[in-house]
Amino acid sequence: MISSLQPPFFQALGDSKRVLLAGMGGGFDVFCGLPLYFALREQGVEVTLANLSFTSFHPLDPRPLTPSLLLVTPDLPPHGRTYFPELHLARWLDAVGEPARVFAFEKTGVQPLLGSYRALVQQLAADTVILVDGGTDALMRGDEADLGTPHEDAVSLTAVNELNGVRSFMVSLGFGIDAFHGVSHWNVLEATAEIARAGGFLGAFSLTPDMGPVQKYREACEAVFKQMPRHVSIVNASILGAILGEYGNIHATDRTGDSELWINPLMAQYWCYDLPAVAGRLQYRKALLGTHTMSQVDQVIHAHRESVALRSRHILPI
């Protein structure tokens, strides 16, 4: 095996023993971390899954650590919630013999989220935190022509950057998907180049259908999609198609029927970064630090966009 050509990401993980792997943008982002979850588990690493949740919290939900952190286990009552990917994931993990718990972070501003991350890292004695972005808009710095859907990504990035005593990384899966939300991938590659110059780009690698962790990822997605047929994840369905070699305007769900997609091999690549290097580019990060609610986050982003000269939109010259 030519170990010297492995992406630096694996070297940077080093002797990590207890990893918190968290979806940073809400929804199904935690599913984008499942190939890593299974690969790390195969190496004997203790991995805990978490996700910034789009699910409403119920007064009877178990919150053992902080008011904005929910412990999701297979027996958690759905309390009428039809959109609950964390619960369906916990049930699937239980069915295949994996540790059946997923922590759900409430959709808040930075301060409550930071408190929840600190409590969970301490509870788990985690030495490493990996944030996972389904797509690439977490790399937008703030003055691009379009930011995609930046709120949840920016809050997660800012909160985890404030943690002490842990290694922190960010990985993205789904290059090209955020064109659906207006992101120019010229800016994604620009960000990666800037981070590379700062020493924070840790390489990229592809997921292929023959990989065991990828097969389990596909099984998990397909099982949960069956439980939530009205909420099939556009991001994960597109990634799975790319892994299988689909290309072009391929639609796995009728939710995208009115748009043109570009399913492509780059969607099946993990792009890996040192988290502080990504956070250091976020132009409104310091302004986010005092936020408690998503409405305050929205105000910060709006104010920043009003205060800077937005750059012209570029398209990839290929």
Automatic annotation (TrEMBL):
Alphabetized Pfam families for the sequence: DUF1152
InterPro entries, sorted: DUF1152
UniProt protein name: DUF1152 domain-containing protein
